[in-house]
Amino acid sequence: MPELVCSRCKKSAPGLPAPPWGGAQGQEIFENACLSCWKEWQLMQVKVLNEFHLNLSDASHAARLDHHMMVFLGLEEPSDEAMAPAPYGFGAQESPGEGE
Ligand SMILES: [Zn+2]
C-alpha cells in the first residue's frame, strides 16, 4: 500500500488499498486518509449515526454523515449546524447567543 501523509493524524502511514468508492470524494479520501484513520471512521460512523439519529435513506441525513466523515478525516471545515453536538470534539465550543 502506498504511504501518504494523512490529513487527519498528520502521520506518514499506509493509505487505503483502493478508493472506498468511485468519484472525486472517494479519490480524495484515498489520497489523503491513512488506513487506520479510515478504520477509526468506520467505528465512529456508527456512533454518529446513533448520536444524530440519522436515517441514510434521507438524502439530507446522508449528506450530513458525509460531512462528518470529511471533517473527521480533516478534509473539510466543520459547519456548526451539521456538527453540533459534536461527538468527537470538532466545533464543540458552546456559543452563547446561538440564534437565527
Ligand atoms: Zn491518519
Secondary-structure topology with pairs:
Layout: E1 3-5, E2 12-14, H1 23-32, H2 35-51, H3 59-72, H4 80-83
Antiparallel strand pairs: 1-2
Helix pairs in contact: 2-3
The structure holds zinc ion.
The site of zinc ion has 8 residues, from helix 2.
Question: How would you characterize the overall build of this protein?
Answer:
The chain is mainly alpha-helical and 100 residues long. It has a single domain, classed as YggX-like, CATH 1.10.3880.10. Helix content is 45%, strand content 6%. It is built from 4 helices and 2 strands, in the order E-E-H-H-H-H. It has a two-stranded antiparallel sheet. Strand 1 and strand 2 (12-14) form a beta hairpin. The relative contact order is 0.14. It binds zinc ion (ZN). Zinc ion (ZN) binds next to helix 2.
